[in-house]
């Protein structure tokens, strides 16, 4: 079992920055790839970024490449998403998720944190 709690969302002007954090509990955190997803109103949830269990490999959606940075601290069981140069189209609820080692699907999700970027 993995429990995930996001924090750090809020309202920011275009061009600004926010840092999201995800605090995890459970013994398997350090062996799991972790990801961030987002869902805007009226749209499907979409992949934003992911980081391998060791932190050595990261993946980004084209829309955030070069602006967002994902990182993790296995000792503290946290995952962060640093978001710079924010755009109004980044407005969404952001979710932290943990991927199963066995199935490679994301099987644990946080409750989400709202990010709103004003123009």
Can you lay out the helices and strands and say which pair or pack?
Blueprint: E1 3-7, E2 10-13, E3 18-25, E4 34-39, E5 46-51, E6 58-60, E7 68-73, E8 78-83, E9 92-99, E10 106-109, E11 113-118
Parallel strand pairs: 2-11
Antiparallel strand pairs: 1-3, 3-8, 4-5, 4-9, 5-6, 7-8, 9-10, 9-11
Radius of gyration: 13 Å
> End-to-end span in angstroms?
40 Å
Fraction of residues in H or I helices: under 10%
Number of helices: 0
Overall morphology: globular
What labels describe this entry?
4-stranded antiparallel beta sheet; globular; 11 strands; 119 residues; 7-stranded mixed beta sheet; mainly beta
Structural summary, described in words:
With 119 residues, the protein is mainly beta. Helix content is 0%, strand content 52%. It contains no helices and eleven strands. Strands 2, 4, 5, 6, 9, 10 and 11 form a seven-stranded mixed sheet that branches. Strands 1-3-8-7 form a four-stranded antiparallel sheet, with no helix packed on it. Strand 9 (92-99) and strand 10 (106-109) form a beta hairpin. The radius of gyration is 13 Å and the shape is globular. The protein starts with a strand and ends with a strand.
């Amino acid at each position: 079992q993995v429990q995930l709690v996001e924090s750090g969302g809020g309202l920011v002007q275009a061009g600004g920055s926010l840092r999201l954090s995800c605090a995890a509990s459970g013994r398997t955190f350090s062996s799991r790839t972790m990801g961030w997803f987002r869902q805007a109103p009226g749209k499907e949830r979409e992949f934003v970024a992911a980081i391998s269990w060791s932190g050595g490999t990261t993946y980004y959606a084209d829309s955030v490449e070069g602006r967002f940075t994902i990182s993790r601290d296995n000792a503290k069981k946290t995952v962060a998403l640093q978001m710079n140069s924010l755009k109004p189209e980044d407005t969404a609820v952001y979710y932290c998720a943990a991927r199963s080692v066995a199935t490679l699907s994301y099987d644990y999700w946080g409750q989400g944190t709202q990010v709103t970027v004003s123009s």
